[in-house]
Amino acid sequence: MIRESDRLAQTNNSIDENSIWKALADANRRKILDIIRESPMTTGEIVEEFSEIGRCAVMKHLKVLEGASLVLANKNGRFKKNHINAVPLQAIYERWVKKYEAQWASNLLQLKEFAEYESKSNHYIHSIMNDQANTITIQLEIPIEANINLVWKCLLEEAGVWWRKDFYTSAKTQNFIIEPFVGGRMYEDYGDGNGLLWANVMVLDAPNNVELKGHLSPSFGGPAMTFMKLALEEREGGTTLTLTDTTFGNVSENSKDQLTAGWKMLYEDTFKKYVESKK
Question: What pTM, to 2 d.p., does this model score?
Fold first, then answer.
């Protein structure tokens, strides 16, 4: 019987991702892994599980799986049994899934919270789920003649200075604030604890990017949910700000045109000029 420590010793230092993906791309090879997942089997026993392909084809598939270290053959008495090796699969999981799963789980939780919230508000869910629901994505690349740290500082810490007053939603607004921490608010401050929430900070990776999630109520063109990412990349002679804004719900192409024009006015014009004036 092959011990887990033996499998680790054999594969930890020789994982070939290309061969793993190639091996997993075939449905028959995936079926073989499913068959031996619970218990090791001889080649003959595996062949009996296939009615559509013959012994030679099964052996070729096993050879590919062995080459990718996904199957290990171990002689047990007179018979050679095929064992599944989970180490390469774990390596794939660690690299391609694990570091993103928290973000995926967070997004799904936020979608659940949104659905539960909207279900309490008259026809919101119907509006989101009916045939009128759409998704629009806006992306802008804005070159700024300033170093990345200055751009980051202005982007988050000085939003109240450069945010345009004609973008305020109320005459009561006294300041515009982006709280630079995960869970922080992007909001208009009316004073005395009053205000309007634009979004919350989902991801903060200073000075590289900030991701925000917000809602649009019917009074502001919704109901809809919006995800915005502001990413900075330092390049020769300055920094490139990439804005990506994805909105889904009760939105239209006309909404896309309006949002695009608004973000260009705010970031390509006002913010860019503000940062470059400080340089």
Answer: 0.53
The answer to whether 231 and 242 have CB atoms below 8 angstroms apart is yes
Crossing angle (nearest 10°) for helices 27-38 and 17-24: 90
Distance between CA atoms of residues 259 and 192, nearest Å: 30
CA distances from 227 to 32, 49, 214, 254 (A): 41, 47, 6, 18
Cβ–Cβ under 8 Å, residues 37 and 56 = no
Q: Which CATH architecture has domain 4-91?
A: Orthogonal Bundle (1.10)
Computed over every residue of the chain, the mean pLDDT equals: 83
d(CA 179, CA 201): 8
3-class secondary structure, 203: strand
Question: Who has greater pLDDT, 13 or 51?
Answer: 51
The domains of the chain are located at 4-91, 121-278
Residue among 223, 191, 166 at smallest CA distance from 177: 191
Q: What is the DSSP letter of 145?
A: S
What are the structure tokens assigned to 104, written together?
Answer: 């995926």
- Domain 121-278 belongs in CATH node 3.40.50.1820: no
Closest CA relative to residue 65, chosen from 27, 111, 121, 39: 27
Cβ within 8 Å of residue 18, ≥6 positions away: none
The alpha carbon torsion through 94, 96, 99, 101 (nearest 10 deg) reads: -110
Least confident of 29-38, 211-220, 259-268: 211-220
Residues 240, 216 contacting (CB under 8 angstroms)? no
β-pairing, 224-235 vs 238-249, is: antiparallel
Length of the chain: 279
- Which pLDDT value is given to residue 122? 47
Using only C-alpha atoms, the chain has a radius of gyration, in whole angstroms, of 27
